[in-house]
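Open question from group meeting: does this chain pack into something compact, or does most of it stay loose? Before anyone orders reagents, we agreed to write out a predicted structure and look at it together. Recording both the input and the output here so the notebook holds the full record.
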Amino acid sequence: MGVSAVVPESQLSLAVNGREYQLHHKLALFQGGPGSPGADPAAAWSAAIVGLGYVGLPTALALHGRCPRIIGMDISEDRLAAIAAREADLADTDRPRLEAALADGSLELTSKVAAIAEADAVIICVPTPVDGDHQPDLAALRGACAAVVDQARPGQTIILTSTTYVGTTRELLTEPLAARGLRAGTDVYVAFSPERIDPGNPDHLQRDTPRVVGGATGTCAERAARVISQLTDVVYLVSSADAAEATKLYENIFRAVSLALANEFADACGALGLDPIEVTLAAGTKPYGFLGAFPGPGVGGHCIPCDPHYLLWQLDSRQRPAPLIKQAMRSIAERPHRVADRAAELLTAGGVTVAGARVIVVGVAYKAGVQDLRESPALPLMAGLRSRGVAVSYHDPLVPVVRLEDGQTVASVPAPDGAAYDLAIIHTLHPGVDYAWVGRCPRVLDGTYQFDSVPHRAVV
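Structure tokens returned:
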């Protein structure tokens, strides 16, 4: 197998004692290089991307120029139409790729699951959300895997990238394929490679972000690594698909715990009259033993608020406690309500009656630079304010309309006058947007802790 036990130290990010090099033998660096997933890496090949959302579409575009035929499959005709019309939410670096891929015909858009059988490599990129009770919603995942199994043919390499519970690749792909007479490692090649896409962040490009691959067999891992090497220059192989699945869960659980801690520490700094951003940056000057995070108004997106619940769900079924993770997720869920409470405190302190107060939320997307509202803390924040009788508006040039938790829709105020509101809450600051109007609002609550251009701002 084309692997090496040498792991570049620059690729490891560990808050350990500085001797992590002693553990390099635990990881294998794939050195086979990119190529077709088949026996002949130089042969022409095709890839099917199942799910064209915030992960699947950038994955398909990253293959442009590296894969002669890219089949983009999604069951949503609306999504396919938006992509064809060049209206999908994409990073600026991906928009020229979309234009080029559609223009030269290398990207084919379809809702027909039968197209999966035409591909040499199949990459599954469907969402794995949680429901209102924080239980995994496996509908899209099960549906996509079932479709891939039904359409699978000998010789295919099948890679699941969706974040999920440990054992998913085995339960939803390897075993059903075997029931069809397709054995992993002999007839088909099955692996898990967790996605590592950071929407809206130009500093974290796919090509520069290492990936992990775990296969049902060693041969499965090598075949999958050839495909994933088309997306990134560095691929690590782990011992199994289960290990790769657990890797992604640990990554996002670490972020969840770190963000919950950052928010709690920010509250402590507020009680002590300190700036938590300054303290975090100062702590980050230590070259070992510290991996900091910045506080904020809450945590949103498709990963951190959802993924840890896949592990908690799995552990609960085995009566295995995980109190630290549970508390972190509870703290994350409660953060927007803490911001709403703080907003009420500022209004009351300023002599403004909370019921009937005019409040504008600045930015509602879950993070800067994206249109994505999934799990955005702005939604429970606005709901919490409305439950107090507050007249809530919002301004977000990337999100024209929001559907609130009670089903009501609210449109973004296109050109707000800060003086018309009793309070502005800074939730998400998009790059390149002029927020000078916020300074004219008599009260500003900065949920980001970084909007220091307004002298009279308060923090959570």
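Observations to bring back to the group:
Residues 4-10 have pLDDT under 50 and may be disordered.
The chain has two domains: 3-239, 334-459.
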